[in-house]
């Protein structure tokens, strides 16, 4: 079934697990204001100044990053200077790729050869497309460890909503790769959630963003019911978490997910990354055999809540 969804060429990579055993408003509103390259450079410089003024931090950085060692030794920060055709950006990208090849791929060639034969990630991750929310980076997922789909506001449509790239990825991860965990990660200052909470009654149907974030309309309704007296900012913080839990419930509308959750071979979790103070909350939907995770008042039950700070 997943084969038909994914097509032939990409499928040959993605479904290699099948033939192997398990061995191995506006865009600127949504994604926040853009930092100009000069500002990025200034941030880089500020970081380097703090490294220099903090001997312990500097020693830790020196141990962990040979490149940074070289930068500090040269007393000159490396920066990406954008040219008209962007060629320097790609030079930097090439450098990073070749560095990955040298330090990770070639040094762990046996692991990567096994990975080329098939994938068996334990996690399916659904997170926002926001460039500041990079699950592999913040949670340390290595190649082969997480099957990831990213969309605006990390929303999961219901089964009844019909096909989308998100549920196509879900179908493959659950029915073919057989992941054991689905983790939906929301985040602070989410522009997609702000678009949802700022929406007027008349939806702008010409906007793909408006149409998409309406997937989270139940989260908006429950946020308005619980927090209508609060400021828009506070409502957005509330809805950022509420929408994650609504997505967890929406996951249960997929029969092949509910079946596996009932059998206990699949768990579904929420996560909330606050990139303002760099904290992470994680929790698990408490699923009951009778098929309901909702209490009588319509609320859901959660368990195993942790706060990482
Ligand atoms: Zn977001």
UniProtKB/TrEMBL annotation:
Alphabetic keyword roster: Lyase, Metal-binding, Zinc
Cofactor comment text: Binds 1 zinc ion per subunit.
Needed cofactors: Zn(2+)
Enzyme class, UniProt record, top EC level: lyase
GO terms of biological process kind: carbon utilization
Protein origin, superkingdom: Eukaryota
Cross-referenced SMART domains: Pro_CA (SM00947)
Keyword Zinc tagged: yes
Residues annotated for Zn(2+) binding in this entry: 128, 130, 187, 190
EC number: 4.2.1.1
Catalytic reactions on record: hydrogencarbonate + H(+) = CO2 + H2O
Keyword Nucleotide-binding assigned: no
Gene Ontology terms for molecular function: carbonate dehydratase activity; zinc ion binding
Membership in a protein family: Belongs to the beta-class carbonic anhydrase family.
Function: Reversible hydration of carbon dioxide.
Protein name per Swiss-Prot or TrEMBL: Carbonic anhydrase
Organism: Actinidia chinensis var. chinensis
